[in-house]
Amino acid sequence: MAANLKLEIVTPEGQVYSRDVDMVLLPARDGELGIFPQHAPLMTLLGTGEIIARSGGQEDRIIVTSGCAEVTGNQVSVLTVFATEEGAVDVEKAEEARRKAEERLKQKLSPEETSLVQASLAHSLAQLKIKRRPRP
Amino acid sequence: MPSTRNIRRRIRSVKNTSQITKAMQTVAASKMRKAQTAAINGRPFADLAARILAHAAQSLEDDYSHPLLEKRSGPKRAVIVIGTDKGLCGALNANLFREVSRLDKDHTLFLTAGRKASQFVARTRRQLVAEFSYGDAPTFTDAQAIARAAQDLFLKGEVDAVDVMFPRFVNTLTQTPTTRPLLPMERLWENGDAVVEAKGGNGAAPDYLFEPNAAEVMGALLRYFLDFQILQLLQETKASEQSARMVAMKNATENANQLIKDLTLAYNKIRQAGITTELLDISTAQLAIS
Q1: CA-CA distance, B179 to B95, in Å (whole number)?
Q2: Which residue among the candidates B52, B79, B81, B89 is catalytic per the annotation?
Q3: Is the peptide bond before B212 cis (omega within 30 degrees of 0)?
Q4: pLDDT tens digits for A17-53?
Q5: Distances in Å between the alpha carbon of B255 and those of B15, B21, B22, B172, B173?
Q6: Are B166 and B82 in contact (CB under 8 A)?
Q7: Residue B128 is inside which H or E element, if any?
Q8: For all residues of chain A together, what is the average pLDDT?
Q9: CA distance B180 to A127
Q10: What is the pTM of this model?
Q11: Architecture of the CATH domain A5-86
Q12: Do B168 and B240 touch, CB atoms closer than 8 A?
């Protein structure tokens, strides 16, 4: 392949992923988007789901919740609050995060807090779902 | 000449002080590491957000407008001053407040974060609109509260621009008081590093496709970006504070130890002088008797 895509994923805690890949699947809010090199410049909002980065026969899966992505000819920059690499998912931790978030939602929160807790709940649910899905 | 007892007492009190400053130094050093990592790790996010926004703004259609982007030329502005909660951190706050005191008193409203900042604004009889607090590890919620307040002032038209003043973290020894424009948001990327890159990169910005549409992407981005910008600045301030405190306490400990050395020397000299006089007395008395 002539050109590679450079995928970078940045969260407030720092850069979590930066690698050259062949293609990227983005969980856009209204459905999945597949990005190949030389894609037209694009900006999209992300929903909850997996970013799948393919390079050669290898696949990296990173679970993200909300955020946005910028696609230029050879670069995909993802800006998100929550990002977890699939290998790093810890079922127990995710389970606990889910419980905590559910508890927090029952208390009275300001609208801002609620949206953040909801996002974090969605993120832990996504981690659990993906981790427990049956493997082919 | 001071008595030996007085000197002993002073040595003891200086020793106590040095123990306290030493303890504070250790605490600040460990907090500093955490705060510095948070501040430095947050920078790529803020930079990327600025870059994306700058790109997006360049390829918007001309008739697109967002209330947060609206430029007004009025004189009224609001300044968010981010200071520390506690003192004992060298000249950090003093340097920042010197910058603050240069601002036009009549046309500036103040929002503050950190107790020292609100005390300063109140003491100098400036217009304090709101004060916020933030913890050792600033959270997104802390930042969001400040961002909301600033946004409200701006959207209601009470002010025409919002700036942030904070001690920017350069390295452990250097923190510079810095002013960053916040609202209208166009100013953010007009004088940020991000724009240089955006313009220098490949000439004209490419025409972006927006998914689902430009207005929604822009709206979400702007809200997102504002909150995280403030969070980043809070983290920078925290890193600056802990670094400044660590350095100040290190100096204090060193000074105290030097003082103890000097006092001990003086104490020993006096003690030796006393012994010598006593010996002299004894031998004179013996000579007189024999």
Answers
A1: 13
A2: B89
A3: yes
A4: 888 888 899 988 888 888 888 888 888 888 888 888 8
A5: 11, 10, 11, 20, 18
A6: yes
A7: strand B127-132
A8: 82
A9: 38
A10: 0.81
A11: Sandwich (2.60)
A12: yes
Which residues of A are less than 8 Å from B140 in CB distance? 12, 81, 116
User: Of the candidates B38, B141, B210, which has its C-beta nearest A43's C-beta?
Assistant: B210
Which residue of B42, B52, B209 is in closest CB contact with A79? B52
Asked if the Cβ–Cβ distance from A112 to B56 is below 8 Å, we say no
What is the chain A residue with the closest CA to B220?
A45
Is residue B220 part of the annotated active site? The answer reads: no
Question: Alpha helix locations (H) across chain B?
Answer: 4-58, 92-100, 115-123, 140-155, 186-190, 193-202, 214-289
Which two three-digit tokens encode residue B265? 């020397």
Q: Show the tokens assigned to B214.
A: 């430009």
Identity (one letter) of the amino acid at A81?
Answer: V
Write the DSSP symbol of residue B69.
G
User: Domains in chain B, start-ordered, CATH in brackets?
Assistant: 4-22+248-289 (1.10.287.80), 32-245 (3.40.1380.10)
Interface predicted TM-score (ipTM) over 0.90: no
Structural domain spans, chain A: 5-86, 90-132
pLDDT band at A3 (very low <50, low <70, confident <90, very high): low
What whole-number distance in Å separates Cα of residue A67 and Cα of residue A81?
A: 6
- DSSP label at B67? G
Amino acid code (one letter) for B39? A
What is the distance between the alpha carbons of residues A80 and B91, in angstroms, rounded to a whole number? 36
